[in-house]
Design a protein that fits this description.
By secondary structure, the protein is mainly alpha-helical. It has one domain: Orthogonal Bundle (434 Repressor (Amino-terminal Domain)). The chain is built from four helices and no strands. The longest helix has 14 residues. It is globular. It starts with 8 loop residues before the first helix and ends in a 5-residue tail after the last helix.
């Protein structure tokens, strides 16, 4: 059985940015907590397609958007 679904990546990133700001975290602080680099946070927030999925999940996990 084939299932098609789409994610609104821009909406996910927007929610992640909102949560980062609600938690009073700057990009550098989030990077340290997520165990990734500050440039990776910038890539994520700019929806850069070269961002590794592993890095995106690390960010989303810290912000409570995935378990």
């Amino acid at each position: 059985m084939e299932r098609n679904f789409q994610l609104d990546w821009q909406e996910i990133v927007t929610e992640a940015i909102n949560r980062r700001k609600q938690q009073k975290l700057n990009q550098k602080q989030l990077a340290v907590i997520a165990g990734i680099s500050h440039p990776t946070i910038i890539k994520f927030e700019n929806c850069d397609p070269s961002l590794k999925l592993e890095s995106a999940f690390a960010i989303l996990k810290v912000l409570g958007l995935v378990k």
